[in-house]
Amino acid sequence: MSAVGLAVGDGVVLAKRNLTRTLRVPDLMMSSLIMPIMSTLLFAYIFGSAIQVPGVSYTEFLLVGVFVQTVVFNSVITGSGLAEDIQKGIVDRFRSLPISPYSVLIGRTISDLANNVLSIVVMVVTGLLVGWRVDSSVGEAAAGFLLLLAFAYALSWVLAVVGLSVRAPEVVTNASFMIIMPLCFIANTYVSPEGFPSVLRVIAEWNPVSAVTQAVRELFGNTNPDFPPGAAWPLQNALLASVLWIIVMLVVFVPFATSRYRKAVAR
Amino acid sequence: MMTAAIVAREVVKKYASVTALDGFDLEVAEGTVMGLLGPNGAGKTTAVRVFATLIQPDSGQVEVAGIDVVANPRAVREVIGLSGQYAAVDELLTGYENLELIGRLHHLGKKGAKARAEELLEQFDLTEAAGRRLKEYSGGMRRRIDLAGALVRRPKVLILDEPTTGLDIRSREATWDAIGELVASGSTLLLTTQYLEEADRLAHRIAVIDHGKLIANGTADELKDQVGGHRLEVALSEAADLDHARAVLAPIGHGEPVTSHEDRRVVVPVAAAGGVLVEGVRRLDMAGIEVVDASVRRPTLDDVFLALTGHRADKAGQNGEGVKAEETKDEEPVR
């Protein structure tokens, strides 16, 4: 078997194991199923009713933000899962077996991708119930979901680095939130960044989360004339900017996570 | 000439602040059981991690089944089985799932992994518990799954890192029986342990490691002979008399007497058995020290350990507190 085939084959076996675990830990189930439902409902009814925009649906604008926020939050599992497996010695057991050295990371990121698919399905159903609609073609909608998943996958590798650097599983979640909270909120997820103070506005405009959110809104036909995307290049060319961001994140963080992994386990 | 299953020469492994292995040498002959004995922090686990390709040595050479662990770790992983405190099982998976997962990662294929998992569950008397998650297993059952996990690929060299640490005596006996069967079937086994009794019972040869170096290597009898002589052992009724008793007994000893507070004992190395017992008790009696027990015996592995390393072996597993918690657990699995 080729090296890549082996890495992916072992990765899939390990991903299956991770998913089995997720389904058996109530806390993890909560975060990947219940949280998306709650976020969708809360944001749709609380913010959706607080911010009244005559004639247009704020819910539609808002829900893509909820989708992006949820997959970003889900990426925390990548880091904490890795840290936990290393701490408990599970990774050592795997490493004493003739598997590809990349398969632990591949397995973890694949299972988190599957986890995101689950969350998205749940959110779509909840979203449809509260009045969210896709106003574009099937192809564009599919592209939107694909973009969402691709971004989530790339982000998993970023958070893998956090998990492998911090190592104590209890600390990983907190450290991760220090990264993803600003990423989620200094962005166009819930409001237009036009009104942000200048520094925050620039950060929001160049935040990959903003580009992805804008691109998915465009693909779903959920843009709203009352919430213009802003004039910055990544928001005017959101799809291109998103794809570029995803490529950059993968190119930087796949090797980075791999070297962190080697360091973390070689003790 | 016998072939060596494990050869380590001049192995050095340093961490930021400690030198875990400091020119460590070891040779384990094929088809034999080697007990690697040493106090906590002596380098046992580091040695095991190097042999199992989990970490690379800074210098020195290690071959397992004739394969260099640094040059070809992948090939080493094909022929070893590792189990013990640092290679864990998955609590959220069932016994069957754990073994099947290992089989899949050994590339036995879906069918092969399934068949082997079932075979091992049968062999370790876990068929009934196969569908339960490990979380619900007792300590002893968990150890058996762990052991079975190391055997999935029928390894040429089996490495068990403290296989019975933390188990109560009954589970330990059961684990020993299981290991004994493996040994009978001809596997090469490297076993690290803190328990002298375990080494004495399972190992053909014993290697003692301390401060990252091999300090002794031989059969249990050879090691006992190496330490030599006999031991006069007296138990006192009052712990307060220990220092006094040591001073009283020192003149008849062949070496420094050692006292142990918890069981109020003094052990004195003596050259020959004749007359020592009476003489020792007489001296203590004259000094007004009350003796509850006295005997002269051959050195035990404990004495060997003490003589070689300067401290007593960790006996926590025999009467320590950590065991009691496990004992109750063994009777009634946590649900």
Give an overview of the whole structure.
Chain A has one domain. The model of chain A has no long low-confidence stretch (mean pLDDT 89). By secondary structure, chain A is mostly helical. Chain A has helices at 3-24, 26-50, 58-74, 76-88, 90-95, 103-129, 138-166, 169-185, 198-206, 208-220, 233-236, 238-265. Chain A is 79% helix and 0% strand. In chain A, helix 3 (58-74) packs antiparallel against helix 6 (103-129). Chain B is built from 13 helices and 14 strands. Chain B starts with a strand and ends with a helix. Chain B is of the alpha/beta class. Chain B has two domains: 4-224, 3-Layer(aba) Sandwich (Rossmann fold), CATH 3.40.50; 229-298, Alpha-Beta Plaits (2-Layer Sandwich). The model of chain B is unreliable at 315-335 (pLDDT under 50). Chain A binds chain B through residues 10, 13-14, 17, 20-21, 24-25, 88-90, 92-99, 265-267, and chain B through 15, 49, 52-56, 74, 77-78, 80, 82, 85-90, 92-93, 97, 101-102, 104-107, 133, 149. Chain A: It is found in: Cell membrane; Membrane.
List the helices and strands and how they pair.
The complex is a heterodimer of chains A (267) and B (335).
Chain A: H1 3-24, H2 26-50, H3 58-74, H4 76-88, H5 90-95, H6 103-129, H7 138-166, H8 169-185, H9 198-206, H10 208-220, H11 233-236, H12 238-265
Helix pairs in contact in A: 1-6, 2-3, 2-6, 3-6, 3-7, 3-10, 4-6, 4-7, 4-8, 6-7, 7-8, 7-10, 7-12, 10-12
Chain B: E1 4-14, E2 19-29, E3 33-37, H1 44-51, E4 59-64, E5 67-68, H2 73-79, E6 80-84, H3 95-105, H4 109-123, H5 139-151, E7 157-161, H6 169-184, E8 188-193, H7 196-202, E9 205-210, E10 213-218, H8 220-227, E11 230-236, H9 242-249, E12 258-260, E13 265-270, H10 276-286, E14 291-297, H11 301-309, H12 316-319, H13 321-331
Parallel strand pairs in B: 3-8, 3-9, 6-7, 7-8
Antiparallel strand pairs in B: 1-2, 1-4, 4-5, 9-10, 11-13, 11-14, 12-13
Helix pairs in contact in B: 3-4, 3-5, 5-6, 8-11
